[in-house]
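Write out a record, focusing on structure:
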Amino acid sequence: MEREKRYQLEQRRKDKERMEAAQARAHDRYEKIQKLQATQERMYKKKQDEFRRHNEKMIKQERIVQLRKQKEKEQIGKAQRERADRAKKKLQNVMVQNQKRIEESRRDLAERMRKQHERMQKKDQCDKELVKSYPL
């Protein structure tokens, strides 16, 4: 009976050791899983942060590109307006010059016609005087 008691005590001790070892292994596994989850969570947050920074960088670059394109369009529009204004002024200057030439030509023609009229009146006067000087 003493032997059986010792055997049972030994069995209980072994069972207790096995239970403690199993609990320790389970606790180690739990800690390993916790560490792994924490590591994965850190990596996930790191990747999210990298992704967010990358997105912000890409958005900023896209905005810069858009601003450059807008500035180029504005510069092209400004250059086109300036060219159009210069062409309009040039056309106006040409039209003014043409108008001046036309007016000058009209004055010259009027002056020539006046002189011709005076010459014709002189000639008529001379002819009248000639006719008077030679009576019929």
Notes: The first helix runs from residue 2 to 133. The two ends are 197 Å apart (CA to CA). The chain has a mean pLDDT of 94. Residues 117 and 123 are 10 Å apart (CA to CA).
